[in-house]
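Task: fold both queries, return tokens.
Query 1:
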Amino acid sequence: MVTTNEILRLLGSDSSLLEYSSARIGKEQITLPNREMVDQVFVPSDRNNRVLGNLSWLYQTGNLANTGYLSILPIDQGIEHSAAASFAKNPIYFDAENIVELSLRANCNGVASTLGVLGLVSRKYAHKIPFIVKLNHNELLSYPNTYDQILFGSVDQAYNMGAAGIGSTIYFGSPESGRQIVEISNVFAYAHQKGLFTILWCYLRNDHFKKDKDYHLSADLTGQANHLGVTIEADIIKQKLPENNGGYLALNKDGEAFGKYDERIYNELSSENPIDLTRYQLMNNYAGKIPLINSGGASGKNDLADAVRTAVINKRAGGSGLILGRKAFQKSLEEGIEIIDAVQSVYLNHEITIA
């Protein structure tokens, strides 16, 4: 596992993140990840015993077993980013079996992928690691490209292959978001009936969210997306790490009117520090009762350092882990495992505490 000194070296100029103490939302106000998360949060809920069993399996698997933290490998980009753009860097992942093998070799809590990928290897692997079937995707072969999440599979297909959970995306803010909210709310309700847990990719998509900054990554707007996600009973929220704040402020300039907000979310409940921004996202998950996992983001030049930084921010904010894909599978198998191992090391390191 990666040591504290190595984490400090990888953080470089961001090493101050390890010392930051939040003066905004105190950690005592949130439910923190712990080994009793299922009993503490979900047992009193309306989730049935089969959902509780599958959530427990997820939390009890891999290197982070029984810590309250999650390390999930998601590889569904062959649809939304095209197989060519996703796998040309490392063609072994055109083969569905290698996707699941990476999750096992890296000792992840679970693997999230498409109906086709997981269905092809389900008899061999569905009993070895929790399968999370991503049911909807944005299809990019129609011309001109359209941007909408459409169902590629069903809850029954996920259930029949032995999956533990399902995942879906909603593009909050998009013209199609109303239909997607209704559609995925119904999908999640049926998944819970069948005993599958639910993960929601709470993403924003609207060209108007790009002003002087890209407010698709603002804490206030992504936080509200999270709150809509937990409203339709997502058991886990996946969200991009926030990079700024003030989306509502920017969208209400020049006589425009958008949404509703309170100035205190900027001057009392958050700051410019990424830990505070992420904690505000988490507050929208019923003050941390619904886990927040941040995405690892696209692959770049410094993926190991970037992944560690994201993990440190998520953990110190009170989040529950990372769902990291491209940074791992667009590398050699050994490099991918090294990056996932480094992320898991952050969550296993008792010297890295909640801010």
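Query 1 returned. Query 2:
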Amino acid sequence: MRLHELRTFISLVETKHFTKTAEQLYISQPTVSLHLKRLETHFGQALIHRHSFNKTIEISEAGQLVYRHAKEILHQVERLDQEMDELEGLVRGHLKIAATHTIYETMLEKMIHRFVNLYPEVVIDAKLMNQEQVEQAVLHYEIDLGLVEGVVEAPQIEVTPFTFDRLRVIGRRELDLSEATFIYREEGSAGRAALESWLATNDIVPQRIITVHSNRLVKQLIENGTGISMISERLAGEMLDSANYRLHNEDPVHKRTFQFVTLKGQPTRLSEKWMAMVVEEFKQN
């Protein structure tokens, strides 16, 4: 069993397609088949089931087990590579991160810009996810580092705060709370949970609800008078002081913490460098 065979199998599980796996890894389709055969010979079990009638594959129970452990093994190899590089004074490698919408849309660009200037040999892969997706991605070794603003429950996750944010309920001045449409974020987002909590606390039952998957779209719908919603002060910007809008909570709903999430006891060196950079920046500001 070799590492490149595990990488091939991970890709095969995630794409469920031999040709797509070959294209993704820049290898031939026969090589994908060979890697799979070697793994199945090593474990003595079928890792996939092929369906010839529609050319799809199904991952066997044994295959799912190999997939989960392969992700963990490659995560540990990545950690080892980065630590060995550090012994030689090198900072390089691949940093996979994901951020929830507010952080992604208002802060991530500056973080990435500063980090790549400090460490130009690092390759960054940044994804946009909601809170629940970020936590699952950390737990399943799909990302090295998450940036979230909600409460994290999973005991396997280490949380490191780096700054704070406040939420406001805001809409066009002419909109009435009792009759307005409310703009919700999708299920699993911290913003949706905060809005639902505020509505319940104030005994408000929305007459109409629109659900969207972007904070910027929430802001645009507030600006054009479609409805009322709760957004970050960082995103609201000049709306907070404009006479065209009404704040329905003069005091912020609550102060929420922006925080990093990593697997407890298993952060990569690049994750540690990213967190140290951001924490230091906010200390100075």
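Both queries returned. Flag for query 2: The chain has eleven helices and eleven strands.
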